[in-house]
Amino acid sequence: MKRLTDYTWPEYEALPMADKVECLARPDGMPFHTLFAQQFDRARLDRLCGLATEIRSIAKSRAGMEFLQGLLFHKRAMIYFTQPSSRTFLSFLSACQILGLRTGEVRDASVSSEFKGESREDSIRTFSSYFDLIVMRTQEKGLAERMAWALSQSRRPVPILNAGSGKDQHPTQALLDVYTLQRSFERRGGLRGRTIVYVGDLARGRTVRSLSNLLTNWEGVRHVFVAPPQLRIGDDILEMLRSRGQAFEVSSDMAAWLPEADAVYMTRIQDEWDESRGESARIDTSRFKIGLREMALMKPGAILMHPLPRRDEIAPEVDADPRAMYWRQVRNGMWIRCALIAATFDCGSRIDHYFRDNL
Fold first, then answer.
1. What is the mean pLDDT of residues 175-201?
2. Is 188 in the same domain as 141?
3. Residue 250 CB: number of other CB atoms within 10 A?
């Protein structure tokens, strides 16, 4: 079994993804650090989704909450978010509270020693001296991965959970998206053979990159990427799907694909990544919005998803449609992150036993 400590940073950085995934796993196969969507095969996804459902059931009673809060009361988590966030931050904070972890937070680098010139690497090494888990959200590509390697070389390795890294990966968002899809279709044949239509800023939307990776764990999924030409999905994602034998389409005609969709995954314009002022505003996105007229084109059993925050790509009146799942995604995110944290600290079997014995 390959380990992070077997490699220098340049050697590890150059490894193919499959070897990186092996380096990040514990002996039981579950991740020690969670950095990439590619770390989760079908068995791990089923395990996490099942664990999330057990936790949410246990949490419905006072006795169940007392059990959950005792699981990790002896652990501490640092939530280190140098990229703006509300949902992901609160989701992780709530997940930690449910499992009893005490938390610290840095959400503004200007109030930390980084303001004095300390590197982010040194800040994170400092956190690892005080905390047992680091949850990171950053605009800096590769920082979570680099720090996972660095901390694994130290005398006190601390797991890192990637809560969003650059434009590349957002694995826990993809986990909650899969959990939402599973719960939506669990009594209607599951995810096999479903058509997923992704709409919006697909060039810079890391949620779509991570979700499309995870959905290759189900046979027959068809991926349809709908975007203005300037914001089309990256060729690397298309090549990944091609290599895994998954069907895909690239289009700029949303209306044509809505009747085919089992799930529509809307995204906002990611103008925080603009290279020049007003770059995104010059792109015509008028045909990539969902209102009541567009909802009428969708199947009665289809669902509408969005990682949030939204702007004007989904009209507020759509919220009342039972097919709108984005608020359920928010809640599902808390439960799947509970499951991930519990699995990171190897608490899954204790949760299983409590669930079997008490529910």
1. 95
2. no
3. 15
Query: Tokens in use for 73?
Result: 């009361």
Question: Active-site residues: which are they?
Answer: 87-88, 116, 137, 170
CB 224 within 8 A of CB 196: yes
| Residue of 152, 178, 117 lying closest to 12 (CA atoms) | 152
| Number of Cβ within a 10 Å radius of residue 251 | 14
Residue 354 lies in a domain: no
Full residue range of the structural domain in which residue 281 is found: 171-330
Q: What is the 3-state secondary structure (H, E, C) of 117-142?
A: CCCHHHHHHHHHHHCCEEEEEECCCC
Asked if 273 contacts 204 with a C-beta cutoff of 8 angstroms, the reply is yes
Q: What is the pTM of this model?
A: 0.92
Residue with tokens 């009146």: 317
pLDDT band at 79 (very low <50, low <70, confident <90, very high): very high
Tokens 């994602």 label which residue?
Answer: 237
Pairing, β 76-81 against β 263-266: unpaired
